[in-house]
């Protein structure tokens, strides 16, 4: 009997992916992720800087056509919470930072990022047999939840302040052919961007942008789009893979795990440039990179931030299919991760500034 694999077959660096996903970085508090990005890119780019919002921009100067610029964006933040109140008994009340489904939050472990250090806690959940039928059938709201730190009120008041951020506590594991954990949205795409940056020798100038506050309205990319004026903008983000039992209608799957990188045609914030996504398809076919097409009915990515803030820009996006998005068990297929790295690197290495993206 064969033993289960502890690491995936991925071509890329699993240890880095695990570090990125297990690290914490709620919107506006991406410091730990920013440090990893700067460390990983320091020796492979010509310039690296951080703006006032916390976006990291790492630039590789083009070898042949440096005046033609491409921006590639992936966001650093994960959905989380902010403490709004500390009760006299020592329980924490929360406000959401990003789009949570409160049904998945009860009885989860969390990390409170206090000024004196991280504190582990749990989101409380009363035993179902002590609840009335009305209570069992009620719909949770984030404001109804509370964090229990296992300490008395006086101690908690000394440790935690209003405004401290809270993130989910979860490790990253290999589950068959998938990698699962918290914050795969969007750390798996940030990972893909970092890995691609290490592989390319571009003819054009490429700005690798690790953005902030995407989960609360694409805020980092919108601000970055004012400072950068690229000729082409590409975003990396996860997309829905509803290839699970609750969705028997395959037309609602959006993407499927194991079928390759997803080339975005549209989402709720952007319709990508047809010439850009057709070139991506051509590159994928020429290089024999597994890919699929994505039409996402709702949601948005950093692509729209570039398109909306610095005028009319040709934009495109590559997505990693993800099951169980915005939970602590988000799952991506290792082959799709590899395909995303391969496709991004191939697109950047074959961009010469001469492709016509005008419509």
TrEMBL record:
<keyword id="KW-0479">Metal-binding</keyword>
<dbReference type="InterPro" id="IPR023367">
    <property type="entry name" value="Peptidase_M42_dom2"/>
</dbReference>
<dbReference type="Pfam" id="PF05343">
    <property type="entry name" value="Peptidase_M42"/>
</dbReference>
<feature type="binding site">
    <location>
        <position position="326"/>
    </location>
    <ligand>
        <name>Zn(2+) 2</name>
    </ligand>
</feature>
<protein>
    <submittedName>
        <fullName>Peptidase M42</fullName>
    </submittedName>
</protein>
<keyword id="KW-0645">Protease</keyword>
<feature type="binding site">
    <location>
        <position position="215"/>
    </location>
    <ligand>
        <name>Zn(2+) 2</name>
    </ligand>
</feature>
<comment type="similarity">
    <text>Belongs to the peptidase M42 family.</text>
</comment>
<keyword id="KW-0378">Hydrolase</keyword>
<dbReference type="GO" id="GO:0046872">
    <property type="term" value="F:metal ion binding"/>
</dbReference>
<dbReference type="GO" id="GO:0006508">
    <property type="term" value="P:proteolysis"/>
</dbReference>
<feature type="binding site">
    <location>
        <position position="237"/>
    </location>
    <ligand>
        <name>Zn(2+) 1</name>
    </ligand>
</feature>
<dbReference type="InterPro" id="IPR008007">
    <property type="entry name" value="Peptidase_M42"/>
</dbReference>
<feature type="binding site">
    <location>
        <position position="185"/>
    </location>
    <ligand>
        <name>Zn(2+) 1</name>
    </ligand>
</feature>
<feature type="active site" description="Proton acceptor">
    <location>
        <position position="214"/>
    </location>
</feature>
<dbReference type="GO" id="GO:0004177">
    <property type="term" value="F:aminopeptidase activity"/>
</dbReference>
<feature type="binding site">
    <location>
        <position position="185"/>
    </location>
    <ligand>
        <name>Zn(2+) 2</name>
    </ligand>
</feature>
<dbReference type="InterPro" id="IPR051464">
    <property type="entry name" value="Peptidase_M42_aminopept"/>
</dbReference>
<keyword id="KW-0031">Aminopeptidase</keyword>
<feature type="binding site">
    <location>
        <position position="75"/>
    </location>
    <ligand>
        <name>Zn(2+) 1</name>
    </ligand>
</feature>
């Amino acid at each position: 009997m064969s033993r289960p694999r502890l690491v995936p077959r991925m071509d890329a660096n699993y240890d880095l992916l695990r570090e990125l996903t297990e690290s914490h970085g709620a919107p506006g508090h991406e410091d730990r992720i920013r440090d990893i990005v700067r460390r990983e890119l320091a020796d492979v780019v010509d310039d690296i800087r951080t703006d006032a919002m916390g976006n990291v921009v790492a630039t590789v100067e083009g070898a042949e056509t440096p005046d033609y610029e491409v921006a590639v964006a992936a966001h650093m933040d994960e959905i989380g919470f902010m403490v709004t109140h500390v009760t006299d008994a020592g329980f924490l009340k929360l406000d959401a930072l990003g789009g949570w489904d409160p049904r998945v939050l009860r009885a989860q472990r969390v990390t409170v990022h206090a000024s004196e250090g991280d504190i582990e806690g749990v989101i409380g959940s009363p035993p179902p047999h002590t609840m009335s039928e009305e209570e069992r059938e009620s719909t949770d709201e984030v404001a109804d939840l509370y964090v229990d730190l296992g300490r008395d009120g006086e101690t908690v008041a000394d440790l935690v302040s209003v405004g401290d951020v809270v993130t989910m506590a979860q490790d990253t594991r290999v589950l068959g052919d998938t990698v699962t954990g918290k914050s795969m949205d969007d750390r798996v795409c940030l990972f893909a961007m970092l890995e691609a940056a290490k592989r390319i020798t571009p003819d054009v100038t490429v700005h690798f942008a690790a953005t902030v506050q995407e989960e609360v309205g694409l805020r980092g990319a919108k601000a970055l789009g004012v400072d950068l004026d690229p000729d082409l903008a590409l975003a990396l983000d996860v997309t829905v893979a509803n290839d699970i039992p609750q969705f028997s209608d395959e037309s609602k799957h959006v993407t499927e795990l194991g079928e390759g990188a997803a080339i975005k045609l549209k989402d709720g914030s952007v319709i990508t440039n047809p010439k850009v996504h057709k070139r991506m398809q051509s590159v994928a076919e020429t290089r024999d990179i597994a890919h699929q097409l994505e039409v996402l009915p709702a949601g948005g990515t950093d692509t729209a931030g570039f398109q909306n803030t610095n005028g009319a820009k040709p934009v495109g996006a590559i997505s990693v299919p993800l099951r169980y998005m915005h939970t602590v068990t988000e799952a991506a297929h290792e082959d799709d991760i590899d395909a995303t790295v391969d496709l991004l690197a191939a697109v950047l290495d074959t961009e010469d500034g001469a492709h016509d993206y005008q419509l």
